[in-house]
Design a protein that fits this description.
The complex is a heterotetramer, with two copies of chain A and two copies of chain B. By secondary structure, chain A is α/β, with parallel strands linked by helices. Chain A is 34% helix and 20% strand. Chain A folds into two domains: 2-182, Thiamin diphosphate (ThDP)-binding fold, Pyr/PP domains (Rossmann fold), CATH 3.40.50.970; 195-321, Rossmann fold (3-Layer(aba) Sandwich), CATH 3.40.50.920. In chain A, helix 6 (150-160) links the parallel strand 6 and strand 7. In chain B, the strands form two sheets. Chain B has a five-stranded parallel beta sheet, with helices on both faces. In chain B, strands 4-5 form a two-stranded antiparallel sheet. Chain B is globular and about 50 Å long. The chains are: A alpha/beta, B alpha/beta. The structure holds thiamine diphosphate (TPP) (2 copies) and magnesium ion (2 copies).
Chain lengths: 325, 312, 325, 312
């Protein structure tokens, strides 16, 4: 085992897979010259000059070209710079990448990976802070991974670069510099499998990304209140691991879903609705969803912190759920 | 060309008889473009097509039985009934899909070009798109992108003078769409899209340049959409005299006359070809009509290669 | 009262408001010359030559220009042609229209209306059949109206053209030719108020648009099974009328939510989650959500009909809920 | 110009001291463009700005106290702390917003132009955008749209030779961005963006044409981004010698020398101006620092004019 950052783990995954498979190539804005805004491309600096390059600011062309390249047999990996800018080229994803295999009756394999940073960080304000994974959960046709640790990102990116389906990966900005243990030897993490980051008996918390860490902090603090959280990191949002969640809820009889994206019509609603449908009788209390207030992300850190959920929201929800407030 | 024409006439009739669902956009009058361009390509070259894509498919070597079955929404169709006219594709002959999104094929074509460039093969990718599509952001981004990376892509603008109800000059701020090539420092040329030989010559030059790593070309092929935007279009936005006038310039008749003049074919041979094609079309219709409808549950296949855990 | 089509009612609303207020103008693709694909602009043919016009196929410019025009004091109404093509210009909506008032601390009034057809109809296939209202429910900053009858569309479009907030209106393709009664005299319908299209005591059905009519058909057929549906047409999806829904659920103790858009992470999940949170103890059974299967819309009518929900799904769900299946 | 420079220097320093959150993109070296263009406008004319927008605000008559307070995220700021550097706006002086989306302001500007045209006033709308933005779909769609409707819009391309880490020629397939005007049949001109008088002349001509219903113009103002893309940018993608070279061509020094040569101002007067400006900046910082932080709950206001029934 070694201890490396999330960025480094991501870089290792990309490097190893590019060495293994020369159909993989990667491009986007501002990635080649400085090693990527968040350092993920540092390990590639100087390597594969034809297989890593910067593009014009042309998101519709960038995302759409990934589809074309996949159709001719390549495995493109595209960085979307900031998840917000998915919107400037999103037709290439929602109308093309997500539909073409189905529309053509299963012709072709869309082995392509879109990845990049999302989430709230340091007063980046409304156009640079969004988490929009829910959109891709709603519109069918692309798988979604959202790893929260160096170990997970490395194993899941490697798996994704070998998948024959299109995948989008969201990496929370605050995670890149976080450290964690990663094995020396090669490993892969299968998509669609949640990871129980902490076992517990009182309340199941279903979460991803930065909120996994907030949940762990909350769990720590709740010990002194005698509340024992079970924290499930979905890791793959589509398809999400329903079995693991249901099993946990059958044990704890209580469910909190915590995500950073807007609470209203966020993916937490999908989990909540599904669980009340399929495990109605296991629930001792209403499912609580935690998400951002339904406003664009404000600039001031006072406002940003108010709008963005964190461990405190989980603590409050857990206490309320256990009847302690 | 004639095969395309006859396919389209059959499709039109079938639609008007209520046998075909959905939207059908006919390529009648524009056949010389697909025919001329595709004659310069190999089977392993790629194209991206448009909502008006039957002609591209046929010229690139698509199977009209499978096409017709798809128009009928049958399970034997190219897309097993999932795509229909606007989404016909045959990746095996290099057709990376018709497209219901105006401009939607352009980014895909440059991606094919990017893949070719990195694989270092000598294939090319062709993007077909309409005059209306030349006003989309996708057009601009794709041409700039292709130029910057000198991709082996040829952009074929089918300027049929209308974008559904809108006349080209009402929505397009440049006289010749090929003039926009200047914005990307690539060659741009306007040709008579109703002259199949002119199309062939221009496409040949561009395709060779692309194969020789000379980068992309923008070709504007001027033509005219002889039918409504889609079958059933009331077409209130143009005069019938204008349409009649262009029927006098339609490509097949012109080319037939040339072939006869140059003594390459005689009228009897042409009749034989027509008869053979008529039979092929009838065959295709029979194939389609006799094919089974998909089973409802087939709707829940073909989304992913691996759909383990996916909830439909 | 007169009996007119949905299209005609929409046309009347536009005409009356454009006559009343000369800051209203309208543009889009293919609307001016033929009276609009679905006839909504027929009543405007020849009138207001400077205030109704066709544009190039440039959706990002079209939607973004509505914002600019609103900021200089006009009231633009833009047709988005097919809801699918919102994606080709969606950054102008999600990143600009939805955010600019908030980001600027409340400067300006964004009196603009985006409207157009959505939904499944006649084998239009995957790129011409979507309902994507959920995206706008999730991302804060635009109000959503989705009327289901001639009466509602007229009254709500008129209100919307007087509103100072940005609004998006989805009109299901199958509704345009449907007829209904509309008063001779002027009327307005307030946004945010649901309409109980049918009272009933056994199950509350929350729905919109085409599915209102499917729900009414289902209710008719269920009479013979002794099941009495209460059908709530939300009409405004954002903000949605929570009070009316909760009151109904407190009466019926059962809730079905029926929409045409994809079931997964569709807005039904938001309603279901909210109701189980706020009326947990009123629920006698798990809330059932009805929506399309999670695939792109296929072409063949056999497949399309299978994927698209209709009255039969509601009947089946209702019977299951009442323990009859 | 000098006011912009000093504001930017202060912002840079405050950021490096850790007093300002978020991203700051400095306009240092590009001041002549905002100053030259804005000198041709009236207060009721409109502009749309970019992520590098402080200069535009100041030149259009924005209040630097409110700007500085916004950079600090204070409740007295232009956006009550909700926007920050990248979203500063003052609709009352015609600034329809900075924009964090590259190319995002272009559609807004043509919309302002459309509104003006329909209202039949003689206002104009100016869209500022960078060289990188000239490769976005929004650029193409907006210029075509403005041309087709002959909108009173002037497009000012601030070609500072970089789009964050990318050199202009690596991503932009045309030598002069103004050459792209051909694609829209509108006048296009490239000028020295470091020469405030050249900017003024070109802008004046274009603005007058726009007011006279002569339609849009594309002006490319060549300049250089003397600082990193944002404050804190390690700037590994260019040589320091290149930067130094351009410091020798920066606009303020050039213009000051001209003013002295032409005896319009003497050094003492310049010193007085500088002193006055320094004081204003100090005032602005003091205003900002002494202003209160917003209350957390204020996050739940300003989304809609009427938020009845809305669940935050
Ligand atoms: C992005 C998008 N916007 C609008 C439409 C609706 N639409 C379908 S075809 C068409 C006109 C296309 O004109 P052109 O590109 O000239 O192709 P043509 O139909 O003439 O072959 C329009 C507006 C669409 N399909 N996609
Ligand atoms: C649509 C979009 N894509 C990417 C970015 C990230 N980004 C911010 S500024 C910038 C470079 C812009 O270059 P240019 O237009 O030349 O403006 P400059 O910064 O040089 O003033 C990029 C890529 C963005 N903000 N928006
Ligand atoms: Mg056309
Ligand atoms: Mg620049």
């Amino acid at each position: 085992m070694k201890t490396i950052t999330f960025s480094e783990a991501l870089g290792e995954a990309i490097l190893e897979e590019m060495q293994r498979d020369d159909t993989i190539f990667t491009y986007g804005e501002d990635i080649a010259k400085q090693g990527g805004i968040f350092g993920a491309y540092k390990s590639l600096l100087g390597k594969f000059p034809n297989r890593i390059f910067d593009t014009p600011i042309s998101e519709e062309a960038i995302y759409g070209s990934a589809l074309g390249a996949a159709l001719v047999g390549m495995r493109p990996m595209v960085e979307f710079h900031f998840s917000d800018f998915l919107f400037t080229g999103i037709q290439s994803i929602t109308l093309q990448i997500e539909k073409i295999r189905y529309m053509t009756g299963g012709q072709g394999k869309l082995h392509l990976l879109l990845r990049g940073p999302d989430g709230v960080s340091n007063s980046a304000a409304a156009q640079h802070s969004e988490s929009i994974e829910t959109i891709f959960m709603h519109i069918p046709g692309i798988k979604i991974i959202i790893p929260s640790t160096p170990y997970d990102i490395k194993g899941m990116i490697k798996t994704s670069l070998r998948s024959d389906d299109p995948i989008i990966c969201f990496e929370h900005k605050s995670l890149y510099s976080q450290k964690g243990e990663v094995p020396e030897e090669e490993y892969l993490i299968p998509l669609g499998k949640a990871d129980i980051k902490k076992e517990g008996k009182d309340i199941t918390v279903v979460t991803i990304s930065r909120m996994v860490h907030e949940s762990l902090k909350a769990a720590n603090e709740l010990v002194k209140d005698g509340i024992d959280l079970e924290i499930i990191d979905l890791r793959t949002l589509l398809p999400w691991d329903k079995e693991t969640v249901i099993k946990s809820v059958q044990k704890t009889n209580r469910l909190i879903i915590a995500h950073e994206t807007w609470r209203r019509a966020g993916w937490g609603a999908e989990i909540a609705s599904t669980i009340q449908e399929e495990a109605f009788d296991s629930l001792d209390a209403p499912i609580i969803r935690i998400g951002a207030y339904n406003v664009p992300m404000p600039f001031s850190s006072v406002l940003q912190n108010f709008v963005t959920p964190d461990k405190q929201n989980i603590i409050t929800a857990a206490k309320k759920m256990m009847g302690e407030m | 060309m004639q095969k395309i024409r006859k396919f389209e006439q059959a499709a039109e009739q079938l639609f008007l008889e209520g046998k075909l669902p959905g939207f059908i956009h006919l390529y009648i009058g524009e056949e010389a473009i697909a025919a001329g361009v595709m004659a310069t390509l190999n089977k392993n070259d790629y194209i991206t097509s448009t909502h008006r894509g039957h002609g591209h498919m046929i010229a690139k070597g698509g199977d009209i039985n499978l096409m017709m079955a798809e128009l009928f929404g049958k399970t034997t169709g190219y897309c097993k009934g999932k795509g229909g006219s606007m989404h016909i594709a045959d990746f095996s002959v290099g057709v990376l899909g018709a497209n219901g999104v105006v401009g939607g094929g352009l980014p895909i074509a440059i991606g094919a070009g990017l893949g070719i460039k990195i694989k270092e093969t000598s294939q090319v990718a062709i993007a077909f798109f309409g005059d209306g599509a030349a006003n989309t952001g996708a057009f601009h981004e794709s041409l700039n992108f292709a130029s910057i990376f000198r991709l082996p892509v040829v952009f074929i603008n089918e300027n049929n003078q209308y974008a559904s109800t809108a006349k080209k000059q009402e929505t397009t701020s440049v006289e010749n769409i090929s003039d926009r090539a200047i914005s990307y420092s690539i060659p741009g040329v306007t040709i008579d899209g109703n002259n199949v030989l002119a199309v062939y010559e221009a496409a040949k030059e561009a395709v060779e340049r692309a194969r020789d790593k000379g980068g992309p070309t923008l070709i504007e092929a001027k033509t005219y959409r002889l039918k409504g935007h889609f079958v059933g279009d009331p077409t209130k936005y143009r005069e019938q005299t204008e349409v009649n006038n262009f029927w006098g310039k339609e490509p097949i008749n012109i080319f037939e006359k040339q072939l006869i003049n140059w003594e390459i074919l005689n009228q009897k041979e042409i009749n034989n070809i027509n008869e053979r094609l008529d039979n092929q079309i009838l065959e295709a219709i029979k194939f389609a009509e006799n094919s089974p409808e998909p089973l409802p549950e087939e709707a829940l296949t073909d989304l992913f290669v691996d759909d383990t855990g996916y909830d439909y």
